[in-house]
Amino acid sequence: MAITLTESAARRVSDHLESRGHGEGLRLAVKTTGCSGLAYVVDFADKISGDDQVFTSRGVNVVVDGESIKYIDGTEIDFASDGFSTAFRFKNPNVVDECGCGESFTVNSS
Asked: Which CATH number fits domain 4-107: 3.20.20.80, 3.40.50.1370, 3.40.50.2000, 2.60.300.12?
């Protein structure tokens, strides 16, 4: 499968990479936290490591470490503005439950 970006997310990442003047793309990972167990971590990828997987979507690299990919493979990343809030949104087919605040999620453990 792959990690993909919507047009809005790709534009947001491209604009920020351009304003930074460097970077390989967007880094997406997960960490153990929150009431449901896992949370997304989004950052710039300034280098690509040997265990990273790189997916190119709409001309933007999305870099995922080897440990995180099992939780987020197939995810579509969107970027949305809602009133005063702007954030990346994740459509992850592996999620079986999310906490009420939307900050963490659970995947099927099989």
From this structure: 2.60.300.12
What is the mean predicted confidence (pLDDT) over 75-100?
90
How many angstroms separate the CA atoms of 37 and 15, rounded? 32
Q: Domain ranges in the chain? A: 4-107
3-state secondary structure of 36: coil
Backbone angles phi, psi at 32, to 5 degrees: -80, 120
pLDDT digits (tens, 9 = 90+) for 6-20: 999 999 999 999 999
Q: Is 13 helix (H, G, I), strand (E, B) or coil?
A: helix
pTM score = 0.89
Judging by beta carbons within 10 Å of its beta carbon (0-12, 13-18, 19+), is residue 108 exposed, middle or buried?
Answer: exposed
Say if residues 40 and 108 touch (Cβ distance below 8 Å): no
